[in-house]
Amino acid sequence: MNGSKSLGLMLLTPAIVFVLLFFVAPVILTAVFALTNMSTATGITGGAYQVTQSSLRKLAESYGQAELANTLAETRYTVNEEGLEAIAADGADARLVAEMRAKLGGRSFEKRRDLESAIKTLNSRPRNTRALKALSDTFHRSIVNERFESADAMLRATTNLGVALSADQKSALADATYTGWVWTTQNFTRMIALPDTQRTLINTFIYVFATLAIFNTGFALVLSIATHYMPARPAGIFRAIWLLPRISPPVLYVLLWKWLAWDTGFLSNFLANFGVAPRNWLLDNPTNAWIFIVLINGFVGASMGMLIFSSAIKAIPGSLFHASEVDGASRWQQIRYIILPQLRWPILFITCYQSLSLLTSFEYILLATEGGPGGATEVWALKTYLTALNNYAGNLEYGYGAALALVLVVVGVVLSLAYLKVFDFKTMVRPPRIEQ
Amino acid sequence: MNIIPKKAFAIGLAFALSATVASAEDYNITVWAGGTGPNDTYRIDAIKMAADILERQAAIRGENIHINVEGKAYDGWEEFKQGVTLSAESGNAPNIVVTGHEDIAAWAQSGLIVPIEDYVDLGAWPINDIYPNLLKIASFNGAVYGLPQDAESRPMFFWRDHMKGIGYSDADIDALPAKIASGEYTLQNVIEDAKKMQDAGLVEPGYGFYPRVSNGPDYWQFYQSFGGEIENQDGKLVFDKSAMQKFYQFFADAVEAGVTRKNHIGTPWDQWYNEVANGKAGIWHGGTWHYARYTSKEGLDDFFGKIQFSLIPAGDASGNANTITHPLVYLLTQQNDENVESIAAELVTIASEPRINALHAIKSAHLAISRSESGVDLYANDRWASEATERLLPDATAIPNNVNFGQYWEIMWGGLEAVWTGQKTAEQAIKDVETELTATMGDAIVIR
Question: pTM of this prediction?
Answer without folding.
Answer: 0.85
